[in-house]
Protein backbone atom coordinates (compact mmCIF):
# COMPACT_ATOMS: atom_id res chain seq x y z
CA UNK A 1 0.00 0.00 0.00
CA UNK A 2 1.20 3.49 -0.82
CA UNK A 3 1.85 6.06 1.91
CA UNK A 4 0.04 8.63 -0.23
CA UNK A 5 -3.30 10.03 0.87
CA UNK A 6 -5.99 12.13 -0.72
CA UNK A 7 -8.13 14.82 0.85
CA UNK A 8 -11.83 14.16 0.70
CA UNK A 9 -13.90 16.88 -0.95
CA UNK A 10 -17.41 18.27 -0.84
CA UNK A 11 -20.20 17.87 -3.37
CA UNK A 12 -23.20 20.21 -3.19
CA UNK A 13 -26.70 19.06 -4.13
CA UNK A 14 -29.25 21.72 -5.03
CA UNK A 15 -32.36 19.66 -4.16
CA UNK A 16 -33.48 21.92 -1.26
CA UNK A 17 -33.25 25.13 -3.30
CA UNK A 18 -36.38 26.83 -4.60
CA UNK A 19 -36.45 28.89 -7.78
CA UNK A 20 -36.29 32.13 -5.81
CA UNK A 21 -32.91 32.76 -4.27
CA UNK A 22 -31.20 29.64 -5.59
CA UNK A 23 -28.47 31.54 -7.40
CA UNK A 24 -27.56 33.68 -4.41
CA UNK A 25 -27.68 30.72 -2.05
CA UNK A 26 -25.28 28.79 -4.27
CA UNK A 27 -23.07 31.85 -4.65
CA UNK A 28 -22.79 32.18 -0.87
CA UNK A 29 -22.04 28.48 -0.51
CA UNK A 30 -19.30 28.50 -3.14
CA UNK A 31 -17.69 31.51 -1.45
CA UNK A 32 -17.20 29.46 1.72
CA UNK A 33 -14.41 27.16 0.56
CA UNK A 34 -13.53 24.15 -1.54
CA UNK A 35 -16.35 22.44 -3.45
CA UNK A 36 -15.55 19.76 -6.02
CA UNK A 37 -18.86 19.72 -7.85
CA UNK A 38 -22.48 20.81 -7.79
CA UNK A 39 -25.27 18.33 -8.62
CA UNK A 40 -28.16 20.34 -10.04
CA UNK A 41 -31.46 18.60 -9.38
CA UNK A 42 -34.69 19.08 -11.37
CA UNK A 43 -36.57 18.26 -8.13
CA UNK A 44 -39.86 17.92 -10.00
CA UNK A 45 -39.42 20.79 -12.46
CA UNK A 46 -40.56 20.31 -16.05
CA UNK A 47 -37.91 20.38 -18.77
CA UNK A 48 -38.15 24.04 -19.78
CA UNK A 49 -38.44 25.27 -16.20
CA UNK A 50 -35.50 23.14 -15.16
CA UNK A 51 -33.29 24.44 -17.94
CA UNK A 52 -34.09 28.03 -16.97
CA UNK A 53 -33.36 27.20 -13.33
CA UNK A 54 -30.16 25.31 -14.08
CA UNK A 55 -28.55 27.67 -16.59
CA UNK A 56 -27.25 30.30 -14.14
CA UNK A 57 -26.32 27.62 -11.59
CA UNK A 58 -24.17 25.79 -14.14
CA UNK A 59 -22.38 29.00 -15.06
CA UNK A 60 -21.85 29.98 -11.42
CA UNK A 61 -20.47 26.58 -10.43
CA UNK A 62 -18.05 26.54 -13.35
CA UNK A 63 -16.94 30.10 -12.63
CA UNK A 64 -16.09 28.99 -9.09
CA UNK A 65 -14.06 26.04 -10.35
CA UNK A 66 -16.59 23.35 -9.44
CA UNK A 67 -17.89 20.77 -11.89
CA UNK A 68 -21.53 21.43 -12.83
CA UNK A 69 -23.38 18.11 -13.07
CA UNK A 70 -26.99 17.99 -14.26
CA UNK A 71 -29.24 15.31 -12.79
CA UNK A 72 -31.37 13.10 -15.06
CA UNK A 73 -31.46 15.44 -18.08
CA UNK A 74 -28.78 14.78 -20.67
CA UNK A 75 -30.28 17.22 -23.17
CA UNK A 76 -30.19 20.03 -20.65
CA UNK A 77 -26.61 19.11 -19.75
CA UNK A 78 -25.63 19.38 -23.41
CA UNK A 79 -27.45 22.64 -24.05
CA UNK A 80 -25.92 24.30 -21.00
CA UNK A 81 -22.45 22.87 -21.59
CA UNK A 82 -22.45 21.29 -18.15
CA UNK A 83 -19.50 19.19 -17.06
CA UNK A 84 -21.47 16.02 -16.42
CA UNK A 85 -24.68 14.08 -15.98
CA UNK A 86 -25.96 12.11 -13.01
CA UNK A 87 -28.55 9.33 -13.28
CA UNK A 88 -30.69 8.55 -10.24
CA UNK A 89 -32.81 5.60 -11.38
CA UNK A 90 -30.49 2.82 -10.24
CA UNK A 91 -30.54 1.38 -13.75
CA UNK A 92 -27.25 -0.30 -14.68
CA UNK A 93 -28.19 -0.63 -18.35
CA UNK A 94 -29.02 3.08 -18.63
CA UNK A 95 -25.76 3.90 -16.89
CA UNK A 96 -23.78 1.72 -19.32
CA UNK A 97 -25.46 3.50 -22.23
CA UNK A 98 -24.60 6.89 -20.72
CA UNK A 99 -20.95 6.06 -20.13
CA UNK A 100 -20.68 4.74 -23.67
CA UNK A 101 -22.34 7.83 -25.14
CA UNK A 102 -20.89 10.66 -23.06
CA UNK A 103 -17.53 9.73 -21.57
CA UNK A 104 -14.92 11.16 -21.62
CA UNK A 105 -16.49 14.42 -22.78
CA UNK A 106 -18.77 14.46 -19.76
CA UNK A 107 -18.49 13.19 -16.22
CA UNK A 108 -21.01 10.39 -15.77
CA UNK A 109 -22.18 9.30 -12.32
CA UNK A 110 -25.17 7.58 -10.83
CA UNK A 111 -27.11 6.69 -7.70
CA UNK A 112 -30.09 4.57 -6.73
CA UNK A 113 -28.24 1.26 -6.35
CA UNK A 114 -29.57 -0.21 -3.12
CA UNK A 115 -27.66 -3.50 -2.85
CA UNK A 116 -24.03 -4.50 -3.18
CA UNK A 117 -24.88 -6.65 -6.16
CA UNK A 118 -26.61 -3.78 -7.95
CA UNK A 119 -23.77 -1.40 -7.14
CA UNK A 120 -21.17 -3.81 -8.51
CA UNK A 121 -23.24 -4.27 -11.65
CA UNK A 122 -23.29 -0.49 -12.04
CA UNK A 123 -19.54 -0.40 -11.52
CA UNK A 124 -19.08 -2.62 -14.57
CA UNK A 125 -20.17 0.37 -16.67
CA UNK A 126 -17.13 2.26 -15.34
CA UNK A 127 -18.87 5.47 -14.29
CA UNK A 128 -16.75 8.29 -12.93
CA UNK A 129 -18.36 7.81 -9.51
CA UNK A 130 -21.24 6.16 -7.67
CA UNK A 131 -23.29 8.06 -5.10
CA UNK A 132 -24.82 6.34 -2.07
CA UNK A 133 -27.86 7.90 -0.43
CA UNK A 134 -31.19 9.09 -1.80
CA UNK A 135 -31.21 12.68 -2.98
CA UNK A 136 -33.53 14.82 -0.92
CA UNK A 137 -33.61 12.37 2.00
CA UNK A 138 -30.98 14.06 4.12
CA UNK A 139 -33.28 15.74 6.63
CA UNK A 140 -32.21 13.63 9.62
CA UNK A 141 -29.51 14.77 12.04
CA UNK A 142 -27.29 11.79 11.16
CA UNK A 143 -26.64 10.02 7.84
CA UNK A 144 -28.58 6.89 7.02
CA UNK A 145 -26.84 3.78 8.30
CA UNK A 146 -27.21 2.08 4.92
CA UNK A 147 -25.50 4.99 3.18
CA UNK A 148 -22.55 4.71 5.54
CA UNK A 149 -22.26 0.95 5.27
CA UNK A 150 -22.45 0.95 1.47
CA UNK A 151 -19.88 3.73 1.19
CA UNK A 152 -17.49 1.99 3.59
CA UNK A 153 -17.80 -1.31 1.74
CA UNK A 154 -17.40 0.30 -1.69
CA UNK A 155 -14.42 2.41 -0.69
CA UNK A 156 -12.59 -0.66 0.61
CA UNK A 157 -13.42 -2.87 -2.38
CA UNK A 158 -13.73 -0.79 -5.54
CA UNK A 159 -11.40 1.72 -7.20
CA UNK A 160 -14.19 3.82 -8.72
CA UNK A 161 -14.69 6.85 -6.44
CA UNK A 162 -17.84 7.16 -4.40
CA UNK A 163 -19.88 10.01 -2.99
CA UNK A 164 -21.82 9.49 0.23
CA UNK A 165 -24.70 11.69 1.32
CA UNK A 166 -24.48 13.41 4.67
CA UNK A 167 -27.32 14.65 6.86
CA UNK A 168 -28.95 17.93 7.90
CA UNK A 169 -26.30 18.59 10.54
CA UNK A 170 -23.03 19.74 8.97
CA UNK A 171 -21.18 17.80 11.67
CA UNK A 172 -22.37 14.64 9.90
CA UNK A 173 -19.47 15.22 7.50
CA UNK A 174 -17.27 13.43 10.05
CA UNK A 175 -19.47 10.33 9.97
CA UNK A 176 -19.30 10.19 6.19
CA UNK A 177 -15.58 10.91 6.04
CA UNK A 178 -14.88 7.95 8.30
CA UNK A 179 -16.25 5.60 5.62
CA UNK A 180 -13.36 6.47 3.32
CA UNK A 181 -15.66 7.88 0.63
CA UNK A 182 -13.74 10.26 -1.59
CA UNK A 183 -16.57 12.79 -1.63
CA UNK A 184 -19.17 13.95 0.90
CA UNK A 185 -22.45 15.23 -0.52
CA UNK A 186 -24.44 17.87 1.33
CA UNK A 187 -27.75 19.53 0.56
CA UNK A 188 -29.90 20.36 3.56
CA UNK A 189 -26.83 20.83 5.77
CA UNK A 190 -25.77 23.78 3.64
CA UNK A 191 -29.01 25.26 2.36
CA UNK A 192 -31.51 24.81 5.20
CA UNK A 193 -30.47 28.08 6.85
CA UNK A 194 -30.35 30.86 4.24
CA UNK A 195 -27.49 33.25 4.82
CA UNK A 196 -25.28 30.69 6.57
CA UNK A 197 -24.19 28.75 3.49
CA UNK A 198 -20.61 30.03 3.44
CA UNK A 199 -20.21 29.37 7.16
CA UNK A 200 -21.47 25.81 6.73
CA UNK A 201 -19.12 25.13 3.81
CA UNK A 202 -16.19 26.45 5.82
CA UNK A 203 -17.10 24.18 8.73
CA UNK A 204 -17.49 21.14 6.46
CA UNK A 205 -14.07 21.75 4.94
CA UNK A 206 -12.53 22.18 8.37
CA UNK A 207 -13.87 18.74 9.32
CA UNK A 208 -12.48 17.19 6.13
CA UNK A 209 -9.08 18.68 6.88
CA UNK A 210 -8.90 16.22 9.79
CA UNK A 211 -9.34 13.12 7.60
CA UNK A 212 -7.11 11.43 5.04
CA UNK A 213 -7.90 8.58 2.66
CA UNK A 214 -5.01 6.25 1.71
CA UNK A 215 -4.29 5.74 -1.97
CA UNK A 216 -3.89 2.12 -3.03
CA UNK A 217 -0.94 1.21 -5.23
CA UNK A 218 -2.02 0.52 -8.80
How do you describe this structure in short?
The chain has helices at 22-30, 47-63, 74-79, 92-102, 116-123, 145-157, 172-177, 188-191, 197-208; strands at residues 5-6, 9-13, 37-40, 67-71, 84-87, 107-110, 129-132, 162-165, 183-186, 213-214. It has 218 residues and is α/β, with parallel strands linked by helices.
How is this structure best described in words?
- The chain is α/β, with parallel strands linked by helices.
- The protein has nine helices and ten strands.
- The strands form two sheets. The chain has an eight-stranded parallel barrel, surrounded by five helices. It has a two-stranded antiparallel sheet with strand order 1-10.
- The relative contact order is 0.18.
- The model has no long low-confidence stretch (mean pLDDT 94).
Query: What is the average of the pLDDT values?
Result: 94
Radius of gyration: 16 Å
Structural class: alpha/beta
Q: What is the helical fraction, as a range of percent?
A: 25-40%
Largest sheet: 8 strands, parallel, barrel
CATH class: Alpha Beta
Query: Order of strands across the biggest sheet?
Result: 2-3-4-5-6-7-8-9
- Going by CATH, the homologous superfamily would be Aldolase class I
Which spans have pLDDT < 50 for at least 5 consecutive residues? Answer: none
Beta-strand percentage? 15-25%
| Structural domain tally | 1
Distance between the termini: 9 Å
Number of helices: 9
- The global form is globular
Name given to the CATH architecture = Alpha-Beta Barrel
Let me know the number of strands: 10
* Oligomeric state: single chain
What is the CATH topology descriptor?
A: TIM Barrel
- Along the chain, the helix and strand elements come as EEHEHEHEHEHEHEHEHHE
Amino acid sequence: MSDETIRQRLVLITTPLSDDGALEALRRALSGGDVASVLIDPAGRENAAFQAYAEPLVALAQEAGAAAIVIDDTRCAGRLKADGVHLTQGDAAALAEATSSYQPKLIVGASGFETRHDALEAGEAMPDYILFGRLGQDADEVPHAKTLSMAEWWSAMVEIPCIALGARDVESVADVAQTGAEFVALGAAIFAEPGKEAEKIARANAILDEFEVPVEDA
